[in-house]
Design a protein that fits this description.
Blueprint: H1 3-20, E1 130-132, E2 150-152, E3 170-172, E4 190-192, E5 210-212, H2 269-272
Parallel strand pairs: 1-2, 2-3, 3-4, 4-5
């Protein structure tokens, strides 16, 4: 970036700050289509600025305020954006592939068709964000918060979601296949027609979640919490659900063929008889299925 271009941007930001503060002569910044290569404006204030199609690729922007900004089709690939604020921003088709977004805030942002492939999103916040057709494949979202977010046809394939929180999220037609990380929290989420096949999510919490018509085939979800979850019509074939908690879970037509339920806790016979089991199912008592009513096979195997 030349000195003149940087000076122009700084001047526009000064006028923009005056506009935000309601001062006379203030002008809302409209820098659409500009390239910000090598930009180093730590903690700059772009709040509510118009920045459509801007290129920030590889820029160093920690702590920058983009809250409420219009950033459709903006390019943030490989940027450093730790602690940046994108709350309530419009980010349709924005690209964050390979960026560092630790502790960034995307709460209530509009992120349709946005891409975060391979991004570092540890402790980032997406509370009540709209994630329609967004792409988080292979991203590291350890500890990220997706409370009450809306997912529709969003890809989390291969993402790391250890300790990530999806409380009360609404998730439809989304891909979590091969996602990994312990203690992911989906409590009270509404999850429909999603793919969790081959995921590795030990100690995951799906308690009180509605998990309808989802695919968990070959999933590794040992020690999971499925208490009071609605699992009707979901496919857990060949999954590992050892030592899981299932008190009050609804298992009508849940596919447990080939599933390992050894030492699973709090499954009543009335629950298991509604599920689909076969001779390759390992029942809670450690014996092979199918489950037979009043057999006692729902009692967990004693360890040791």
């Amino acid at each position: 970036m030349t000195i003149d271009v940087e000076r122009d941007i700084r001047h526009a930001l000064k006028l923009h700050k005056d506009w935000l503060d309601g001062k006379p002569g203030g002008v809302r910044a409209n820098l659409s289509g500009r390239a910000f290569a090598d930009l180093k404006f730590k903690n700059a204030n772009f709040s509510k600025a118009i920045l459509e199609g801007c290129v920030f690729a590889e820029a160093d922007l920690p702590g920058v305020d983009f809250s409420g900004a219009i950033l459709e089709s903006a390019d943030f690939r490989r940027c450093t954006l730790s602690g940046a604020d994108f709350s309530e921003a419009r980010l349709h088709e924005a690209r964050f592939d390979g960026s560092f977004l630790t502790s960034a805030n995307f709460s209530e942002a509009q992120l349709q068709n946005a891409s975060f492939r391979g991004a570092r999103l540890a402790d980032a916040r997406f509370i009540e964000a709209n994630l329609m057709k967004a792409d988080f494949s292979d991203a590291n979202a350890t500890g990220a918060g997706f409370h009450q977010a809306t997912f529709f046809e969003t890809c989390m394939r291969g993402a790391t979601i250890e300790n990530a929180i999806f409380f009360f999220a609404r998730i439809q037609l989304s891909d979590f296949a091969y996602a990994s990380g312990s203690d992911a929290k989906f409590s009270n989420a509404r999850i429909q027609n999603c793919d969790f096949s081959s995921c590795d999510l030990p100690y995951a919490r799906f308690n009180k979640a509605s998990v309808a018509r989802c695919r968990f085939s070959r999933a590794q979800c040992g020690n999971g919490d499925f208490r009071e979850a609605k699992l009707e019509g979901s496919d857990f074939s060949d999954a590992v659900l050892t030592a899981g908690k299932f008190e009050g879970a609804m298992l009508l037509t849940t596919d447990l063929r080939g599933t390992n339920l050894r030492s699973a806790r709090d499954i009543a016979g009335e629950q298991l008889v509604l599920a689909r089991t076969n001779d390759s199912t390992t029942l809670p008592n450690g014996k092979s299925g199918p489950y037979i009513k009043h057999s006692g096979a729902e009692r967990p195997a004693i360890r040791g």
